[in-house]
Amino acid sequence: MAASGRVAIWQPGFLWPALLLLLLLVMPLRGVRGARLYSEEDPLTILTSDTLKETLRNSSTAWLIQFYSSWCGHCIQYSPTWKALAGDVKDWEQAIRIGVLDCAHEKNFEICKEFGIHFYPTFRYFKAHSSSSDIGKTYRGADRELQTVRQLMVNFLQNHTRDDWPAGCPPLEPARSADILSLMGLKTDHYTAVIIEDEDSYVGREVILDLMAYDGVIVRRVLNTERTFMEKLGISSVPAAYLFRPNGTHKLMDVQKSLRFFFSSFLKLLPGVRRKQGPSALENAGGSRGQDSVEVWKEFDKSKVYMADMESGLHYLFRVELASHQTLEGEELKTFKDFVTVVAKLFPGRQSVVKLLETLLEWLVSLPLERIPYDAILDLVNNKMRISGMFLSEKLQWVGCQGSRPELRGYPCSLWTLFHTLTVQASLRPDALANTGLEEDPLAVLQTMRRYIRSFFGCRECGQHFEAMAKESLEQVKSLDEAVLWLWRKHNQVNSRLAGALSEDPHFPKTQWPTPDLCPACHEEQEGLHVWNENKVLAFLKQHYSSGNISPKYTSSNSPDMLPIQDKNAGLSSDEKPQGNQGGSLAPGGFPTRERQHGLDVPREASVNARKEPKPSMTFLVLGFSSLDMSLCVLLYAFSCVFLMLMFFFFRIRSKRWKVRYNRLYV
Ligand SMILES: Cc1cc2nc3c(=O)[nH]c(=O)nc-3n(C[C@H](O)[C@H](O)[C@H](O)COP(=O)(O)OP(=O)(O)OC[C@H]3O[C@@H](n4cnc5c(N)ncnc54)[C@H](O)[C@@H]3O)c2cc1C
Question: Where in the numbering of this chain does the ERV/ALR sulfhydryl oxidase domain appear (predicted)?
Fold first, then answer.
């Protein structure tokens, strides 16, 4: 019977639905899996925290490693150049190798901190035979064109001494003309090519490195200052190449153009010249290829803001971005304090996160230190003191900010979301910053954001662009509502600049936001031209980024408390609440019903749902103590105190009695 049942399942009628189901299950994953910025197919080594140190320690080759962040727009834009460079110098790998390490990958947070990577991309050179404590030499130049970086690689190789020279790297210094002339008429088992060039020219050294992976040919360079040598070989212009054949004959190399590529190709195609056999000994040296895990796509509603995005952003900001700074002092410390003040007072987050931010703020205010080691701040963020009820998840959980590929969106998206939420909160609750020193200032949030981006945001070029925009017009902002609109305008300016760029997620094209489906009333036309109705935009922003529109869906549930999202607007008067047309200086008339259907007057099911969430027994940090455990501890403690006191009185009374008895006897 069982067998017949099994056969029935595989009848054609059942096969197709089963296959369809399988396809449906697999399909959503296809969009989000796969490589980050670099993949196994690229001619470079993908390093991780597991392989970096082991690869560098006493490596027989030098390394040039790009520490990047897969969310950083400039890293995304730069990745084709880096791949092209890696392909261009592939044959140099017995002398110097190209690697990448993604600092945005959770696995690599610690190692990037250890190597002091503050900005992305950071280029580091590591000499051959480096020690395990070597954190490399940073290339700080602004020119990152392929040719510039390639020439820097040559310079870097030449900085090695005789003792630490990469084992497989041929000599790059000019040869003595006498040594070359001695080859005339000499029979050997290989070709010798000589590039005659200027002292500053890189052609000779590049051709030497291009041919190092080939047997049957040796390349040397001679400088054009060797006049007699040039005359003897009949060379009048440089760069030029001269070839000594194995049979002892010699002549000028016959290439169409005196360029690196022409010289190298000519030599590689000579009869008897072939690539060195066998797998490169270095092929196995460190470097894992690929590190992606399959992530499941999370369904989300684009008319909502997700708490999981903002919490993940805060996690990344506190534990990764800021943690790359060993100490905070001076302007950086002031920026950090203001940032914590603004977030602690305005972030409409879960109680456990807000408590953590408030505790951090109290601690910073109570510590009049001029210099704070970041580890102390991290201890607090990680709640090492085990204060109950404060917690910030250590998991990156992108929802509204998830990208169709792992390298897209994520952190920068969450940062925009956070700052839009903060400007809106400041406008909805103007008293929130009272007694912080930031009250009365309509620019408080924006200036804090500006300084944060300038000092700490890993994408330095993004920071420079943002700074330029702030310099241009920030001072014109005179009210909290204008601050909301300023950030919206500037964000749209960035969207417009980045539309079509490599960092754009094809599934989330950069458009002018909010799109007509989110807010039809925001869009108008004047004489055939699109214009924004800024009153409507302001109302929309105040609703969109209000606490009522923040969904708790996908927030991590392993926090010590799962209290509902704080509806800080609950205490506000009804006209301050972000309901449809009632926020701030809205246009009279407010939103028509149609707009309500587009999520402007959203049902508050998010908050309602959150309120309905059961309050689980409190787990106490990672140790897993429940609130019952904690109560028992307290009870035991109280009981021990009472017991000790009783014992104390008991022995005192007894000792008094003994004394009385003894004294009487004595008398
Ligand atoms: C301050 C700053 C400067 C940056 N500068 C650069 C740069 O110079 N070059 C670069 O390559 N990358 C830059 N980035 C990153 C870039 O802007 C995006 O954040 C990143 O490409 C991810 O884009 P995204 O599709 O997730 O949408 P994002 O632009 O990150 O937007 C996130 C969410 O905000 C909402 N939103 C969109 N537009 C607006 C708006 N106008 N007002 C309010 N809400 C809006 C939408 O819901 C959107 O999904 C910068 C990021 C920040 C925080």
Answer: 404-513
Determine whether the shortest distance from the Cβ of 401 to ligand 1 is under 6 A: yes
DSSP 308: H
Q: Can 413 be counted among the known catalytic residues?
A: no
Q: What is the pLDDT of residues 538-584, one digit of tens each?
A: 999 999 999 999 999 999 774 444 443 333 333 333 333 333 333 33
Beta bridge partners of 96: 62
- Counting from 1 in the atom list of ligand 1, the atom nearest the Cα of 463 is 3
Residues whose CB falls within 8 Å of the CB of residue 89, separated by 6 or more in sequence, listed in order = 96, 98, 150, 153, 209
Question: Which residue's C-alpha comes closest to atom 38 of ligand 1?
Answer: 513
- Cβ(532) to ligand 1 under 6 A? no
DSSP label at residue 505: B
412 lines ligand 1 (CB under 6 A): yes
Q: 412: part of which helix (H) or strand (E)?
A: helix 411-428
Query: Which residue(s) pair with 328 in the sheet?
Result: 372
User: Which atom of ligand 1 is the closest one to the Cα of 403?
Assistant: 26
Which amino acid is it at 574?
A: S
**Is 404 near ligand 1, meaning CB less than 6 Å away?**
no
From ligand 1's centre to the CA of 417, what distance in Å? 9
Ligand 1: centre distance to CA 513 (Å): 11
pLDDT of residue 284: 39
Give the Cα separation of 509 and 500 in Å (integer): 8
643 vs 384, 639, 656, CA distance in Å?
31, 6, 20
Interacting residues of 90 by C-beta distance below 8 A, sequence separation 6+: 43
Residues 193 and 218: beta-carbon distance below 8 Å:
yes
Q: Which domains does the chain have, with CATH numbers?
A: 45-158 (3.40.30.10), 177-275 (3.40.30.10), 305-597 (1.20.120.310)
- 627 vs 610, more confident: 627
Quote the tokens at residue 325: 């700074």
Distance 413 CA to ligand 1 centre (A): 5
Please enumerate in sequence order all residues whose Cβ is within 8 A of that of 20, keeping only pairs 6 or more positions apart, or say none. Answer: none
The secondary structure of 360-371 as a DSSP string is HHHHHHH---SE
What span, in angstroms and rounded, lies between the C-alpha atoms of 463 and 452? 9
- Using CA atoms, how far residue 206 sits from 172, 209, 310, 329, in Å, is 9, 5, 48, 45
Please state, in angstroms and rounded to a whole number, the distance separating the CA atoms of residues 363 and 171.
59
Secondary structure E strands in 307-382: 327-329, 371-373
> Which one-letter DSSP state was computed for residue 20?
H
Tokens of 438: 């930031």
pLDDT in tens, 49-78: 999 999 999 899 999 999 999 989 999 999
Residue whose CA is closest, atom 17 of ligand 1? 494
Q: How far apart are CA 233 and CA 59, in angstroms?
A: 40
Contact 494 CB / ligand 1 (< 6 Å)? yes
- Residue 610 in contact with ligand 1 by CB distance below 6 A: no
Residue whose Cα lies nearest atom 36 of ligand 1: it is 513
Mutate to test the pocket of ligand 1, among 68, 309, 413 (most ligand atoms within 8 A of CB): 413
Q: How far is CA 269 from the centre of its chain?
A: 44
